[in-house]
Design goal:
heterodimer, A: four-stranded mixed β-sheet, 8 helices, 4 strands, B: alpha/beta, five-stranded mixed β-sheet, four-stranded mixed β-sheet, 24 helices, globular, binds flavin mononucleotide, binds iron/sulfur cluster, binds FE2/S2 (inorganic) cluster
């Protein structure tokens, strides 16, 4: 676990190298930093503020404005249910309830064992195949409450097996 | 890639590419974007492996394309030159497709689409009713080209409209042509594109910017995604022509990060266009220069609004600001900026190459050209549909969309997303264009069309949209921030069975206040779904408030599901699907629902083929 102790500025050196120091570089830098580190810690945001010479509060302001930024660590698997109109009228509410029940967390939360994070999005642009469940960038179309539970079980089993062979 | 230095070199390159024997091989065009959610990636990989295994690499071409439109039947593919259309293809089908169809020209009937009305097998794309009634302009290349190969675009006359504009037209003539075509912005408001360009051209300041709005924040809309992932160069070419006309030298594509494939294909398109010198300095040997960058959105609906989008590109919170000044006068970094929607930009090359008169001859007098609709919800054939403006809702939903599935009835089409409203059955024969749709309290918007059937509750739909805009409101102005919250509270109360008669008047009153007093389009249109459902579905509100019933069986507090013993044959389907084991019954004997256990998920009603599950 050495990486977490490296100062954020060092970890982000390559990200900073790809961008300028303009205000307009802020969002792309936040995006890349999050891709790299999983979420935006206070330390990360402070490093970015120093790099761009803007107040840390303003970096925090931007990070909290956009739905895509996470200020807390997330689970290993990212479970996303679409709550867009097409998914909604085709029953995404049921899938959301099913997922919440299965994982025991509400939207925006992460399970205690850090295995799953669960969130909803406004629309994934795959409305023709509504309702949609996405796990770790794998899209599952025409979802039902039952199938969602089965798919999550597969992930849980996979994790249990992986742990068994550790 | 050698840079192309003149229009002549562009034509010569096209001829060379067209002559390449590789392009004349039997070709399999497989949708590799929208169909991924149905497993098209596995089909693609199996094709690659199978072609390699059989040593057919120089005899067969596999082309991965963008969306063919018919998402409902995905994964879809077309085998050329015959044009045989296959749907719901699985990896297991791949060896047979290569053996029979590609190598021997035979059709595999099992994979063909069967028209549910005529029961006829459709061998080719043009036989399928879904495609037959469409007229593809913006989508003419989707499914024909590999969006990651600029050469595919060039063989189909790509960038020739740009060459024509640069060689034989002045910027004013380009603007004039676009104005005369009657093209109106496809991002929602329908503002005349030519006029917008003119304003920006005449504004003082440099550099000038052009921006492509690929934020597509409307839930239920995916046509811009279809263009970005199917024909990214058409967007680039449109932007180049627009930039030339306006006098812009720099541009941005603002694309939502929720569309990773779009981001990837657009980035690749930019790289390839740069490599050919079609983007950069001295394009096609002229003194016109244009540089294009991508900015990824970060998940805020309001960033689709022009001034918020500008703030977001500049690195700020995406909050709208009052206008004037308009972006055309003072936009990105304080410079004149022209923002158009993806579909608007993609229309530009055809207008230049085929002429304003041709374009204006399509559609209606005040809404010219075609429009792509994202057909979703309770409709048989979901997908992307391009029709001339002025087509009727009935044509789109019933003839192309195949109507409402499972013997249910059409209730409304929700158009225009959170800014729009619901168009009920009595307007099915109304022509769809900018003006007639708004006359009935909805808007055409960007083209989202979510079909709702008799199992959709319109009060709940209004609550849904209000919840959406309430959480997406940037919070800058009070009417929008507080007003939408009040609307949401009231609607929620009604759907929970706690509504009162006076709530209906209250909804109108708050709605009208929010409309008048909000700063940006989000707040101004936020009450539309509520007001339009109040207007067209008043009786459903009454049922909720007075009778404490949800006729559609959606609002849980107001719904009880029962099984009609007369209709039920005891097939057991519903019992298997019930998540709480609330249903009991022996095979072939009518089943019963234990109301204590029932969570009103409605899945028993969804699966029952006999309509035996009733709402009381
Ligand atoms: C809240 C809000 C969200 C919007 N979202 C989008 C969007 O996602 N895509 C888009 O093209 N236009 C969107 N618009 C409209 C744009 O502000 C703008 O009118 C449009 O991009 C102009 O392009 P056009 O003239 O080609 O239609 C939105 C407007 C508002 C008020
Ligand atoms: S109307 Fe709503 S979204 Fe628009 S500026 Fe006001 S608060 Fe923000
Ligand atoms: S509504 Fe859902 S929970 Fe109730 S009986 Fe039907 S399937 Fe079971
Ligand atoms: S699915 Fe319909 S017919 Fe079959 S047991 Fe259930 S209610 Fe009866
Ligand atoms: S509404 Fe769910 S993908 Fe669009």
């Amino acid at each position: 676990m050495r990486t977490t102790q490296t100062p954020a500025t060092d970890q982000l050196a390559d990200v900073f190298a790809r961008h300028g120091r303009e205000r307009s570089d802020l969002i792309p830098i936040l995006q890349e930093a999050q891709d790299k580190l999983g979420y935006l810690s206070k330390e990360t945001m402070r490093a970015i503020a120093r790099q761009l010479r803007v107040p840390a509060s303003s970096v925090l302001g931007v990070a909290t404005f956009y739905a895509q930024f996470y200020l807390q660590p997330r689970g290993r698997h990212r479970v996303v249910v679409c709550r867009g109109t097409a998914c909604h009228v085709r029953g995404s509410r049921e899938i959301r309830e099913g997922v919440e029940q299965k994982l025991g967390i509400r939207e925006g939360e992460t399970t205690e064992d850090l295995l799953f994070s669960y969130e909803t999005v406004a629309c994934l642009g795959n409305c023709a195949l509504a309702p949609l469940l996405v796990i770790d960038d794998r899209y599952h179309g025409r979802m039902t409450r039952e199938r969602a539970a089965t798919i999550l079980d597969e992930y849980l089993q996979g994790e249990a097996q992986a742990r068994g062979t550790d | 890639m050698e840079p192309i230095r003149s229009a002549e070199e562009l034509f010569a390159l096209k001829e060379r590419l067209r002559g390449d024997p590789q392009r004349h091989l039997p070709c399999i065009s497989l949708c590799d974007t929208g169909c991924r959610a149905l497993g098209s990636a596995a089909v693609r990989d199996t094709f690659i492996a199978e072609i390699r295994k059989r040593g057919l690499s120089d005899k067969v071409r596999l082309q991965t394309t963008g969306c063919h439109g018919f998402c409902e039947r995905g994964p879809v593919l077309v085998v050329r030159p015959q044009g045989i259309f296959y749907q719901r293809v699985a990896p297991e089908d791949v060896p047979e497709i290569i053996e029979k169809t590609v190598l021997n020209g035979e059709t595999i009937e099992r994979l063909c689409y069967r028209d549910p009305v005529s029961r006829k097998l459709c061998h080719k794309e043009e036989d399928v009713p879904f495609y037959r009634r469409q007229s593809k302009t913006v989508f003419r290349h989707n499914g024909m080209i590999d969006p990651q190969e600029i050469d595919d675009y060039l063989t189909l006359d790509g960038y020739e409209a740009l060459a024509k504009a640069l060689q034989s037209m002045t910027p004013d003539e380009v603007i004039e042509e676009v104005s005369r075509s009657g093209l109106r912005g496809r991002g929602g408001a329908g503002f005349p594109t030519g006029r917008k360009w003119r304003l920006c051209r005449e504004a003082e300041g440099s550099p000038k910017y052009t921006v492509c709005n690929a934020d597509e924040g409307d839930p239920g809309a995916f046509m811009d995604r279809g263009v970005c992932e199917g024909d990214p160069h058409a967007i680039l070419e449109g932007m180049l022509i627009g930039a030339y006309a306006i006098g812009a030298s720099e541009g941005y594509i603002y694309v939502r990060a929720e569309y990773p494939i779009a981001v990837k294909y657009l980035s690749r398109a930019i790289e390839q266009a740069e490599a050919y010198g079609l983007l950069g300095d001295s394009i096609l040997g002229t003194d016109f220069s244009f540089h294009l960058k991508i900015k990824q959105g970060a998940g805020a609906f309001v960033c689709g609004e022009e001034t918020a989008l500008i703030a977001s590109i500049e690195g700020h919170r995406g909050m709208p600001r009052p206008r004037p000044p308009f972006p055309a006068q003072s936009g990105l970094f304080g410079k004149p900026t022209n923002i158009n929607n993806v579909e608007t930009w993609a229309n530009v090359p055809v207008i230049i190459s085929r002429g304003a008169d041709w374009f204006a001859s399509i559609g209606t007098e005040k809404s010219t050209g075609t429009k792509i609709f994202a057909l979703a919800g309770k409709v048989q054939n979901t997908g992307l549909v391009e029709v001339p403006m002025g087509a009727t809702l009935r044509e789109v939903v019933f003839e192309i969309g195949g109507g409402v599935p499972r013997r249910r009835t059409f209730k409304a089409a929700q158009m225009g997303g959170p800014s729009g409203g619901c168009v009920p059955e009595q307007y099915l024969d109304m022509p769809i264009d900018f003006d007639s749709v708004s006359a009935v309290g909805a808007i055409m918007g960007s083209g989202g069309m979510v079909v709702m059937d008799n199992t959709t509750c319109m009060v709940e739909v209004a609550r849904y949209f209000t919840d959406f805009v309430q959480s997406e409101s940037c919070g800058k102005c009070v009417p929008c921030r507080i007003g939408t919250r009040r609307l949401l509270e009231t609607l929620t109360r009604i759907t929970e069975g706690l509504g009162e008669d006076s709530d209906l008047a209250l909804l109108r009153e708050i709605g009208e206040a929010v409309q008048t007093a909000s700063l940006c389009g989000l707040g101004k249109t936020a009450p539309n779904p509520t007001l339009s459902t109040l207007r067209h579905f008043w009786h459903e509100y009454e049922a909720h408030v007075r009778d404490k019933k949800c006729p559609a069986g959606v609002c849980k507090a107001l719904t009880t599901f029962v099984i009609d013993a007369e209709k039920c044959t005891g097939c057991g389907l519903c019992l298997k699907g019930c998540p709480t084991e609330a249903i009991t019954g022996e095979l072939k004997v009518p089943h019963v629902i234990d109301q204590e256990k029932c969570i009103k998920c409605g899945s028993c009603r969804d699966v029952c083929n006999l309509g035996a599950v009733l709402v009381t």
